[in-house]
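Recall the central idea of this unit: under ordinary conditions, the amino acid sequence of a chain determines the structure it adopts. In this exercise we apply that idea directly, starting from the sequence alone.
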Amino acid sequence: MTVVSNTSPITNLAAIRQLDLLQQLYTQIVIPEAVYNELTGVETPVPGTREVQDLDWI
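Accordingly, the structure predicted from this sequence is:
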């Protein structure tokens, strides 16, 4: 199943190192471009910054 996510689930689960829970529930996570930019367009990385760039299921 594919689901569209906003920033909060990604940053909060990444912060507690449980982002893989999303993959266990959904095979693919789609994020809008605005969410991607919110996570990657920051000077100091936030939880989830690296993951949205590296994980192929997001």
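Residues 7-15 form the longest helix (9 residues).
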